[in-house]
Each structure stands twice: as C-alpha cells, then as structure tokens.
Write a structure and sequence with these properties.
heterodimer, A: mainly alpha, about 0% strand, globular, B: alpha/beta, Rossmann fold, six-stranded mixed β-sheet, 8 helices
C-alpha cells in the first residue's frame, strides 16, 4: 500500500515520461499519429484476405447486433492484442534502454515501464475510438457498452503492466528474454481466438473429448490463456453488443490483479539493485 | 544535531567482480549459475558528518571510491552495511542532461528533466525564466536539443539541475562545463547557494577548485577514509601522500 503511495507521488514524472514517449514517437513523420493505425490496418487487411477470404473462416454473426463483417470482427480482438503485445515488448526493454538514466539519477524506477503502458494506452485509445466509430456506422449499437468497454480496457492495461514489470526485470538479468518473448508472442497470438472464433476450438474439443481418458479437454487447456477471456469480453461488448457474463469478468479481473501484484513484488525486490546490475 | 546535513555512518559497499559472466538462461539452467565472482569492497566502513551550510569536497585518486560514495549519497546505490541520513531535500548532479529526449525542444526538455530531478510542474514554471537565462540558450529554446552544440546541451542540463533548489546538492566533476564565462556563472551560483545556507558536496580532481570552494573535505583511498576535516589540511595530507609515494 505504501508503495502505491510512493508511485502516486511520482505521478507527475510518470505523466511527463508518458508525454515524452507520445510526443517523441511520431516526431518528424508526415502522418504523425495516423501511423499508430497503420500497423493494425495492415494486419487487418492481410488476415482478412488470408483467413476471411481464402480459408473462409466465418464467425457467427453478432448476437444480438447482427453484424457480419469479418474485418470488424477481427479488429475487435486484434486491437486489444496488439496493445498487449506492444506494452509487453516495449515495457520489457524499458529498463535496459534507460540504463544511463538509472545509473545517474535517483527516481522511482517503476515509472519507466509504466510510462510505456501509458503511451501505448494512448495510442490504443485512439485506435479504439476509430473502431467504435466504424462499428457504429456499420450498425452496431456500441454506445451503451462504452462504460464497460473502458473498464475492460483498464483491466487489460493492468494485466499488461503487470506482465511488463516482471519481464523488464527479467530482461535486465537475462537479455535472452527479449528474443524469447518475440517467439512467445507469435505463438500466443495464434493460440488466442483472434483470427478464428473460439467455437471452432470448442467443436474440435467436443469431437475429441477428454485427452488420454482424462476429464481434461482441449478447450479446458485452451481457456487457461487469459487473453482468450479478454478477447471474448471485447468481442461481446463491441461486436455482439451484449453482457459478457460474470464469470468472464471475474477471470479477467483475477488475472489483472494477479499479474499486477506479482509484477510489483518482483519489481520492488529488484529495484534497488538496478543501477548496479545494468 | 540540527547542524549536520548528512550523516554517513559506517557505510560499506561491495561490488561483484566477475571472473566470468554469462547472463543467459542457458548458463543459468545448465550450470546452475550465471557467474563466478568475488566481492570487491569499494567502500569500507566510512563514517563522517557533513555540516549544514558547508561546501564539502571529496578527494582521492582514481578508484578510491569517491564516485561510489557519491552514488550512495544520491540514492542510486544502496550500501551493504551502514546508514546515510540526510536532513533536507537532496539532489544530485552526476551527469548533466541525462534524460534529455533529443527530438524534443529545449522547452519540453526543461519540464521533462525537471520532473526527473524531482521538481513539480509548478516549481519548474516558477524557475523557468531563471533556467533559460542561466543556460543562455533563449534563442534556441524551441529547437530540438539534438541541434544544440555540446556546450549548449550541457549548459541547459546544468541550469536545470542547479535550479532544483535542494537543501543538499551533490556534484560530480561537472564544474568543468562550458566556457570561461559560464564557469564564472557557475561559481557565482555556488556562492549563492552557500549564502542561502545550502550544503554542497562535490567530487573533484582539481585541488585548486576544492581548496577555493570547499571549507571541509574528506580524503578517500582504496575505499577507506584517510582523513576528514578542514579542507586545506586534508588536501595537504593527500598531496603529501602522493609525494611520498612518488619519491
């Protein structure tokens, strides 16, 4: 609790570092902030072509929204994922990248990874606004779900922050972490129902039944992945326009809280030694 | 009690000297260790007090532990044993301009750097004109700092750091920045701080600078405190030891 107070006392620094990231990122580019849309749009185009058009993945139409557009359905899961992947991969590097600053100035080290969460969150918010506008034009009734959307966005931010805190420390001791992570993130993306619907996994899981005679099913293993639940909630709110069910909320909240607590504990344990080991 | 700004009490600090360092997961798993090391004591049981309102010099040869001690004072390193207590707000100037973002303007960097050094936005605003004037880069304040000459860069960094307005200021060999005119300004600023009753702790290899600026000094050699007290006598003890070692 006292630690939270200390973090709160350096909120001005956190804000300034976040602004540094945001302002510095697209400096000297012609399109500026629009670049933050370029990456998800490119992914959307290629995934829609490959998986929507060639593989013919057809997710069920939004219920009750009635939407049936693969590209938008994809983006509802893809934008949260790219945010998460950005936070984790940038946050991981935040301590190593600022090594000279850490060795020369005394300040709360935790603001370095957290400022990246803030900067990535700002870009994400921008992307989500564009998505909500696009959904509304197509005919989804997203407006009443916006407050809940903000809540789940906050939960995903907390979850991502917790993971980033742990990995930023790990990367100080083992520089392998960053290379490892890029592989993990690629596998993680495909193991999360972002470019295919969860129903396909459920079907296959039912067909096979319990693995090796045990009650453990493929679906059971699959849903251990926290991102499965986050993506479900995002799709329910944005694409289907319905209440995602309490259990999904609880799972997401538990993962977010757990990641944050472990992340902060790990960070705090190692914070003081950073100037020496970097 | 109240006339002591910093109390250094039995401070020891060791570093690991690595004979081999292999910071990979493979090494950690296969060999169950990432390194072979022995401890090197950079500071051994150092004890002294810095009186409030004094300018305090740390002297000693290269590798004597001055910078380590300075970093311990600045809360960047944490001593293995012993304690450091300070009465009042402390600020350290170990490197000027660390934390500048090269693409951002001088103005934006003043606010960014100020907050890294622990100033609130209000404090920066109230000091803003003074910082700009002191640095002498008014004309270029809205240019990105990557276009600054190295002198301008350092002067801006120094101007921010000196205006943090701490009770205790820690300075590491950064007095040698800028041209003669700027140096003069710096000396003036240090005098001003002294008049205001602030404590300054500085490391320097220039005995001349230490002698003119400091009233107290501590001499470190191989991590141990050799002498502490009035600046002139400490300096001559240090210089004598160099002479006798040389002859």
């Amino acid at each position: 609790m006292r630690y939270l107070k200390e973090i709160l006392s350096s909120r001005e620094l956190l804000l300034n570092l976040t602004l540094r990231e945001i302002r510095g990122k697209y400096k000297r580019t012609i399109f500026g902030q629009l670049w933050s849309l370029a990456n998800p749009l490119a992914l959307m185009l290629i995934y829609t072509f490959v998986f929507g058009f060639i593989f013919r993945i057809t997710p069920a139409p939004g219920d009750p929204s009635g939407l049936d557009v693969f590209a938008l359905w994809l983006l509802c899961g893809l934008l949260p994922w790219t945010f998460f992947a950005n936070v984790v991969s940038q946050g991981l590097n935040s301590l190593v990248a600022n090594a000279t600053l850490i060795q020369k100035v005394s300040f709360k080290r935790i603001v370095l990874p957290l400022s990246l969460v803030g900067a990535a969150g700002y870009n994400w918010l921008f992307e989500m606004v564009v998505l909500v506008v696009a959904l509304s034009i197509i005919g989804a009734f997203v407006l009443p779900w916006l407050p809940l959307l903000l809540v789940i966005m906050l939960l995903l931010m907390v979850f991502a922050a917790g993971v980033a805190l742990m990995l930023s420390i790990a990367n100080v001791y083992f520089r392998d972490t960053q290379y490892f992570l890029s592989i993990i993130l690629q596998m993680w993306l495909y193991l999360t129902p972002i470019i295919y619907p969860l129903s396909l996994v459920q079907e296959q899981s039912k067909r096979i039944g319990g693995l090796f005679g045990s009650p453990i099913t493929i679906e059971g293993i699959f849903t251990v992945n926290p991102m499965v639940h986050f993506v479900e909630v995002f799709r329910n709110l944005l694409y289907d326009n319905r209440w995602p069910g309490l259990s999904e909320w609880l799972v997401c909240t538990a993962w977010a809280a757990g990641a944050l607590v472990v992340g902060v504990i790990v960070f705090r344990r190692n914070e003081r030694r950073l100037a020496e080991v970097l | 009690m109240n006339d002591i700004a910093v109390r250094v009490d039995g401070v020891s600090k060791s570093f690991r000297l690595y004979h081999e360092r292999n910071q990979t997961i493979k090494a950690a798993i296969m060999r169950r260790r990432t390194s072979v090391h022995e401890d090197f004591w950079a500071l051994r049981d150092v004890t002294f007090n810095v009186p409030r309102g004094s300018t305090f010099g740390l002297i000693g040869s290269n590798g004597s532990g001055k910078s380590t001690l300075l970093k311990c004072l600045a809360n960047i390193y944490y001593p293995n044993t012993g304690t450091i207590t300070h009465n009042g707000k402390i600020a350290a100037m170990l490197e000027v301009g660390s934390g500048f973002h090269s693409e951002l303007s001088g103005r934006e960097n003043i606010f960014l750097n100020g907050s890294i050094l622990g100033m609130s936005k209000k404090e920066v605003l109230s000091k803003y004109d003074e910082i700009v004037e002191f640095s002498g880069v008014e004309q270029f304040i809205d240019q990105p700092v990557k276009n600054y000459s190295s002198g301008m860069y350092v002067r801006l960094g120094f101007a921010i750091a000196i205006n943090v307005n701490p009770d205790i200021l820690i300075v590491d060999e950064v007095l040698a920045v800028g041209d003669a005119e700027f140096q003069e300004k710096c000396v003036g600023k240090f005098d001003e701080l002294k008049m205001a009753g602030k404590t300054v702790i500085l490391v320097s290899h220039s005995m001349e600078a230490v002698e003119t600026m400091c009233d107290q000094a501590a001499w470190l050699s191989h991590g141990e405190l050799k002498a502490v007290g009035e600046a002139r006598s400490t300096i001559s003890a240090y210089l004598d030891s160099l002479d006798s070692a040389g002859s």
